[in-house]
Amino acid sequence: MMFGPLGREGYRMIRLTDVVKEYPNGTHALNGLSMEIQDGEFVFMVGPSGSGKSTVIKLLIGEIVPTEGRVMVNGFSLTNIKEWQVPHLRRTVGVIFQDFRLIEHKSVYDNMVFAMRAVGAGPKEVKKRIPYCLNLVGLENKGRRLPSELSGGEQQRVAIARALLNNPSTIIADEPTGNLDPARSLEIMRLLERINALGTTVLVVTHEKDLVNRFDKRVVMLERGRVVSDGFGYYGRKAL
Fold it and tell me: N or C: which end of the chain has fewer CB within 10 A?
């Protein structure tokens, strides 16, 4: 089976233009942020606590809307997205969280069934897609295990497989290695790199400087709600 992104041709990209986000408590999380991620890119987004990284993620998955500016994700305008459009957007974007968010009393396979049924997938699609995604992350023999029977690295790979179930064009990984040791962290990043090589856009949000520096990827650095550097190579290097 060919693994690759879905979505409307020509619209597989992320674009934030002059985005401002002010929360009801008066916090200015983003202050005119602009950036683009093209189809098929692998990008690290880094920055200190409070720089706006979490707000960007929430905007990209339609959890919040900008106060000002424009946010486009895979052909959807997040500035004025309709409620009925949000599930369609989220089928194009897979999200991986630091805390895995697996249902402890369900097996790996049943965790994935639950995720697919939540978006209306039929039995044939479930039967076909889950084994493929588990195989992709190297867990083809762990489908009947409970999360508690897996290592932290294996649980994160389950979370990655779950994010791939709907064949998204984009994967957003929010601190995906935050709970893992260095060896497992590198393993997870290599897996995300492999997924990117198969055609999926990958955005990794992280604070792990040493890990980012091991990969020659584009690094977008935020500070105080703005992009302050955007280039390839070492973490935080100012782009020319």
Answer: C
| Predicted structure pTM score | 0.87
- Give pLDDT tens digits for 75-102: 999 888 888 888 888 889 999 987 888 9
DSSP 132-153: HHHHHTT-TT-TTS-GGGS-HH
pLDDT digits (tens, 9 = 90+) for 227-240: 999 998 666 554 43
Q: How far is CA 22 from the centre of its chain?
A: 23
Using alpha carbons only, give the angle 185, 108, 117 rounded to the nearest 5 degrees: 115
Taking the C-alpha atoms of residue 90 and residue 84, their distance in angstroms, rounded to an integer, is: 11
For the record, the structure tokens of 234 come out as 């070492």
Using CA atoms, how far apart are residues 177 and 204, in angstroms rounded to an integer? 10
Angle between helices 123-136 and 152-164 (to 10 degrees): 140
Q: Which amino acid is at 5?
A: P
